[in-house]
Amino acid sequence: MGNLTAEAVVDRLVPSTPRLSPDGRWVVFASSPVGRPGEHPVSGLWIAPADGSEPPREFAAAGVADRAPRWSADSAWVYFLSDRAERGTAQLYRARPDSEPERWTDWRTGVTGYVLLPEDGAVVLVAPEEKEATADPRVRVVRPGAAEAPTWDTADRPDRLWLLDLSTRTVRPLGGFGSRHVVEATARPDGHTLAVLTWSVTDQDPGLYEAGLHLVDPVTGARQDLGAPAREAESLTWWRDDAGWRLAYLGITPPGLIGGRAVFDADGHRNLTAGMSGCPIELAGSGDGRLLALFAEGLDTTVRRFDSAAVGFTELRRATGSLLDLSAGGDRVAVVASSATEPDAVHCGPPGGPLTRIGEPPRPGIRWGTQERLSYRAGDGLALDGLLVLPPGRTRADGPFPLVTLVHGGPYDRFADRFQLGWFRNGQWLAAAGFAVFLPNPRGGLGHGHAFAASVAGDVGGAEFTDLLTGIDLLVEAGVADEDRLGIGGGSHGGFLAAWAVTQTDRFKAAFVNAGVVDWPLLAATGECGRYDLALGGRENSPITHAHRIRTPVLILHGEKDTNVPLSQAELLHHALRDREHEFVVYPREGHSLRERDHQIDFLHRTRAWFSDRLGPA
Q1: Can you give the pLDDT at residue 139?
Q2: Which of 173, 363, 559, 585 has the greatest number of beta carbons closer than 10 A?
Q3: Cβ neighbours, 10 Å, residue 179
Q4: Where in this chain does the record put each Peptidase S9 prolyl oligopeptidase catalytic domain (predicted)?
């Protein structure tokens, strides 16, 4: 059996965005390594029969960033975005599965997205207006009483809609959105209407943007406004019932800023998932026009179809673990799926299953740690779940083990019962070094409905922290975890909880805080999502307020260019711990998530060594 190396973790190819041809015969998908090998991302496109009769073959290979594949209405062409002409600047390309790609745009600033119209004679582009470069001060003009939120006057101009005529290669503006920023667009399957989501600003800084939902005639450009959608609207999807075509989207359940996501009908913005215990994570239209969705339900994922008569979603298939990137064509669906010991792969089949893996399963070579599903009750009786990964070849009877608790971000996220091997979600990496790894899903997360998600509003570090301790206590009582060798770590919101944990207890002998929140009011003033961050926490539940209590050695890791949780958060914790054991690591050029291959390798080695040195022999 081979040894698991950090290089193997970050060089692993992960598929994404599988797209089925309308006739259901073919699937095309992107595939990229976990870590970026150079200055620019690299991803390739692969194509295979949807029945799994042949292995995937690379499509239009170029060693660049090929992404966002889509099929033409007749299943003859694959469109995609690529920076093969100029690295870092995406243009629109088209190719048959057996031909060389042809470039269709030469947009100076690059194309952000595109929408195919069914007639195949035109494409709607999403891209900023092409203008000569000018001075680049960022100026925000605030006019009290103005109907719209203030926008940035900046060189990073808002994305707009443009209609590309494929026969003449001419481009004209579409929709007349003025300074509003086009975030997402999708064509109704009959091609007569575009659904468009816009923001009042081009970025979320400082968390003040007003969304709008619109219908646009792709021929005349005439626009109809549907009003403000639910907060955090995304995933515009057309479907039909007996009355005709309808539009659905995902958004946050009102009334608060913090809560679970729901499926909304754009006609009146009605919640179609009210009262459901699961959480919708993706939408797709099916070949027969009905609405499909993926739902996170505890540790599992379901495929559901909307029943307009019953006004609810009917379960078609339940999958252990996580399904991602739902698409449909013909009578099939395509998803990316993984299991506890099998890496991510594209699977295709009928919506109710079974699904066929596209490509051969990986050859045996590395022995993986056993992954257990956990179910337990919080102190107040709330049902919780999580995962436990044991060292390879070991069982509970071999315990107690040094235990590392990894906390997910969000807080609206989860650990699903899937393959836990990435640069950050690295349960198998730590288990290979002899640690038991606890992956808890405390309240505030994804997969248990709106109330579960909304319960942390204004109270982060409260009951969600005791949820972690309850799970750890159960593992200690069961003889799995060694009480004297406990570690904790997390990223983003998980980094907050790791920092919070060591201000509340000395039980943990080592901790790491990656891109973690240390001061909520400061984050609200400097981060990307100010009003949302302020709705989560304040001064009293900020780790910096209680940093004088910390006695645990802390490894602080942060991206230098992080705009979501700025570097100032890590600097605060570093200065607060000046007279106590800690290490402060800043990754240059990195944002909220580490992208560069060498940085990811450093993160894997550094965090594992931090625990190995302080929790004793594993």
Answers
A1: 61
A2: 559
A3: 15
A4: 426-616
Look at residue 347 and tell me if it is in a domain: yes
Do 585 and 606 lie in one domain? The reply is yes
Same-domain status, 207 and 288: no
The rounded distance, in Å, linking the Cα atoms of 227 and 234 is 15
> In this structure, what token pair is assigned to residue 144?
């009290």
The answer to whether 520 and 534 have CB atoms below 8 angstroms apart is: yes
H or E element, residue 607: helix 597-615
Task: Count the Cβ atoms, other than its own, within 10 Å of residue 39.
Answer: 9
Q: CATH number of the domain that 447 lies in?
A: 3.40.50.1820
Residue 143, domain member (yes or no): no
C-alpha to C-alpha distance for 446 and 78, rounded to whole angstroms: 34
Task: Looking at the structure, tell me whether residues 476 and 550 fall in a common domain.
Answer: yes
Residues 350 and 436 in one domain: no
Higher pLDDT, 178 or 83: 83
Provide the edge-to-edge strand list for the sheet that holds 383-389.
371-377, 383-389, 436-441, 401-407, 481-491, 508-514, 554-559, 582-587
Mean pLDDT to the nearest integer, 291-307: 96
Residue 175 identity:
G
Give this prediction's pTM.
0.93
* Helices and strands (H and E) in the chain: how many: 9, 38
Question: What residues are paired with 162 via a beta bridge?
Answer: 125, 173
Cβ proximity of 487 and 405 under 8 Å: yes
Q: Which residues contact 507 (CB under 8 A, 6 or more apart)?
A: 472, 483, 486
- Record the tokens describing residue 30, joined without a space: 């992107």
208 and 236 both lie in a single domain: no
Burial of residue 73 (CB within 10 Å: 0-12, 13-18, 19+) is: middle
Domain coverage including residue 194? 105-131+154-228
Q: How many domains does the chain have?
A: 4
CA–CA gap between residue 443 and residue 466 (Å, rounded): 10
Q: What is the DSSP string of 100-129?
A: --EE----TT---EEEE-TTSSEEEEEEE-
d(CA 220, CA 489): 54
Task: Tell whether 451 is covered by a domain.
Answer: yes
